[in-house]
Amino acid sequence: MAIPDLTTLTLLLGRLGRLNEMLVTSICVDHGTSPAELRVLLFLSQQPSGAASPRHVAKFVVQTTGGLTATLGRLETAGLVERQSDPNDGRGKIVSITPAGREVHDRALDSIVTRTAEVVGGVDLGQLDLIVRSLVGSLEESVGLPSSRDFVAVPSKGRSNA
Question: What is the pTM of this model?
């Protein structure tokens, strides 16, 4: 196969992102949530305390603060997160994942991991990991976001990363 030009790679990367979003959206629908809501639950579940400031959530999930406010409102109404005053900043808030939020997170993530395993079966995962981390890191840097290049997911109960 010939080495593709940068225009072709750019278009294929865009298509890959949209296809992945379609896959995640269909799984989210099955679990009664949306991709934006699941991204928040994913981020909070990775925090040692299960909580973070909305500003940190917005940065990681790459969502505007206005969009995040609406997402947090829906999650709070569904009982999947709680917003409380930040004990370190009287004007700030902290968002925490609830046990119900963890349950939705765990079930949806298990479905996504299972589907991803089916999609990437036969691909060298070590090589794929290096390429994805490099691309994500470069894209984050280009738009001024903190790097998640070294991110390693904390497995949910009963699931391993092996």
Answer: 0.81
SS3 call for 52: strand
Q: Give CA–CA dist 9/3, Å, rounded.
A: 10
In terms of DSSP bridges, do strands 81-86 and 89-97 run parallel, antiparallel, or are they unpaired? antiparallel
According to CATH, the topology of domain 26-115 is Arc Repressor Mutant, subunit A (1.10.10)
pLDDT tens across 86-139, in order?
888 878 889 999 999 999 999 999 999 999 999 999 999 999 999 999 999 999
Q: For residue range 36-87, what is the model confidence (pLDDT) as tens digits?
A: 999 999 999 999 888 999 988 988 888 888 889 999 999 999 999 999 988 8
Give the full edge-to-edge strand order of the sheet including 89-97: 51-52, 89-97, 81-86
What is the Cα–Cα distance from 45 to 104, expressed in whole angstroms? Answer: 11
Tokens of 25: 């959206």
Q: Give per-residue burial for 82-111: e unless 16+ CB within 10 Å, then b.
A: beeeeeeeeeeebbebbeebbebbbbbbeb
